[in-house]
Amino acid sequence: MPGGPELRAKGWRQESLLRLLENVLSVGEDPENLVVYAALGKAARNWASHEKIVETLKTMDEDQTLLIQSGKPIGLLKTHAKAPLVIMANCNLVGQWARAEVFYELERKGLICWGGLTAGAWQYIGSQGVIQGTYEIFMRIAEKRFSGSLAGRFILTAGLGGMGGAQPLAGRMAEAAILVVDVDPERARKRREIGYLEEIAPDLDTALAMIDAAVRDKRALSVGLVGNAADIYPEIARRGIVPDIVTDQTSAHDLVYGYVPRGYTLEEVRALRKTNPTELMAASRASIVPHVEAMLEFQRRGAEVFDNGNLIRTQAREGGVANAFDIPIFTEAYLRPLFARAIGPFRWMAQSGNPDDIRRIDDRLLQMFPDNRIVTNWIGLARCHIPFEGLPARIAWLGHGERTQLALAVNDMVAKGELSAPVTFSRDHLDAGAMAHPNIMTERMKDGSDAIADWPLLDAMLLCSSMADLVVVHSGGGGYAGYMTSAGVTVVADGTQAAAERLSHALTNDTALGVMRYADAGYEESFEEVERKGIGYLGVK
Ligand code: NAD
Predict the structure, then answer these.
(1) For 241-392, where are the alpha helices, taking DSSP H only?
(2) Which intervals hold domain Urocanase N-terminal (predicted)?
(3) pLDDT-flagged residues of the chain (< 70)
């Protein structure tokens, strides 16, 4: 794991980006194959690319920019010290060809790779990155349906992978009894080992009995169960049990390299990936049909059911489930009022590797935003429940102006020696101005602008002109091919005046664009934010 005060590169900006690359691999799911999460989300195209990126980051000057195309370093060009050090374009296919089959073929030929959202952009911080989002979803549901509390409520979900692995802990933090099904025993074991999952039940009967007891006692509990969700969900429905909340985070977006169809062993699936991906695709789609039909059945019987961003409804609809979209997407159902004010998953990482740096920033954050209920509640919970993975990091959903204020305060702390090394700031790509994804982020936008991908492209260009250290444009790979485009940003707080300028421009403009994107789509909250914070939205009708 990277960390410590020693520089291997010519400056902290380059060194920090190098550490971020090392970090995503150190906490990733399958580092030997450069895979960070979501089945195929990679940190670099191949090992030769990885080595060249590492070598370049170590030797490049501050006034140079490294160009990366789908995980492969292409060139190092002279720019200037205020330009980004790294710019990336990952997995962007021309519209007519943006399909899973074309992606797989180009991937096999070694011409492209998918960066997920934060994997290829070296911004992944382990399961913590997604955990606050999952927790906030659960709490919005608690407010909407269960008088503000999930104590004594049963959440059923699946997927214990890189992102899905956050679910058991998020459920427990929300005080629910949560059952998480995963077909791979290794994934369940890993989540228990790192403290995200409490128990692994030997079979469904035991799992349901454990959940039942916890519900009766109103006791928070997370239980893992090894099995296929396409078997387990229908079986729970058949027994007449109705969970309070149902979702799914298997990697259903990828029918070949992600989802495991029922009736197949993991070994059979691994072999078919090489020998007959077409059969596997068909089997996965067929398996998603009963999986989603069971979710719809739970919904009919009164459960709160939602899609958690894995494209499972889209796959089900293509498999013949005409009403799959009766299940709402989490962004529209619960989080849009936050995104409309550009409040979203902001995060920072201590380059020192020292968790005390994160704790000191927690203290500062609490001092700065004592009246921000989302932040104060979250930091209290995160401190007590979330183990650090890799470089110590923290996520907190902050909005326009708040992100810049915090980053500048942290830059000052670095300058004064109150932190042991620089800190990097980034965010998830699932953020207000940063993502066009008509089946996840921008589904059913008020003005119908769901499919317009201009916003993330504008965001990336704006971030380059705002002096960010790393700027990236990602589009979908595997099953996401043709479904999304997003932009990512990283800025290094190394305590210098130049860093203060970069943080101020990049973070302020990033969220300003987010507010403008939603104002332009007609969201009231965004107009209020424009007025309140003096954002330069021109408001042309
Ligand atoms: P991953 O590939 O690391 O893990 C997926 C897990 O699903 C694996 O552990 C696998 O064994 C399990 N699985 C596959 N098929 C199964 C089945 N039929 N039954 C039970 N378990 C099965 O992926 P991840 O990083 O955890 O992401 C999961 C999904 O969530 C992806 O589609 C990803 O794109 C999506 N995602 C959504 C958000 C969000 O903001 N809501 C964020 C990140 C990822």
Answers:
(1) 266-275, 277-300, 312-318, 330, 336-339, 355-368, 373-385
(2) 5-122
(3) 1
The CATH number of the domain holding residue 310 is 3.40.50.10730
* Residues 203 and 281 grouped into a single domain: yes
Look at residue 223 and tell me if it is in a domain.
yes
pLDDT computed for residue 5 by the predictor:
87
Choose among 370, 350, 484, 519: nearest CA to 425: 350
Distance (Å, whole) CA 520 – CA 527: 9
Total domains in the fold of the chain: 2
**H helix or E strand, kind and range, residue 406:** helix 402-415
Q: What pLDDT, on a 0 to 100 scale, did the predictor assign at position 1?
A: 67
Any residues with CB less than 8 A from the CB of 297 and at least 6 apart, and which? 237
Q: Would residue 519 count as lying in a domain? A: yes
Closest CA to 169 of 212, 214, 138, 211: 138
- Same domain, yes or no: 64 and 88: yes
Q: Are residues 241 and 381 in the same domain?
A: no
Which of 513, 13, 29, 37 minimizes the C-alpha distance to 310? 37
Protein residue with its CA nearest to atom 38 in ligand 1: 309
User: Do both 276 and 211 map to the same domain?
Assistant: yes
| Residue minimizing CA distance to atom 8 of ligand 1 | 161
Give a yes or no: residue 239 inside a domain.
yes
Asked which of 278, 302, 328 is the last residue of a domain, the reply is 328
**295 assigned ligand-binding residue:** no
372 and 287 fall within a common domain: no
Q: Is 128 annotated as a binding residue?
A: no
Predicted TM-score (pTM) of the model is: 0.93
Does any ligand 1 atom lie closer than 6 A to the CB of residue 258? yes
Interval 148-200: pLDDT, tens: 999 999 999 999 998 899 999 999 999 999 999 999 999 999 999 988 999 99
Q: Is the CB of 285 under 6 A from ligand 1?
A: no
Given a contact cutoff of 8 angstroms between Cβ atoms, the answer to whether 237 and 294 are in contact is yes
311 Cα nearest atom in ligand 1: 32
**Measured CA distances, 84 to 62, 80, 207, 490 (Å):** 9, 9, 50, 9
| Residue 228 is assigned to a ligand binding site | yes
Q: Is-contact 251 41, C-beta < 8 A?
A: no
Range of the domain at 49: 12-33+44-114+343-533
The pLDDT, as a whole number, for residue 128 is: 82
Decide if 155 is inside a domain: yes
Ligand 1 atom nearest the C-alpha of 480 is 34
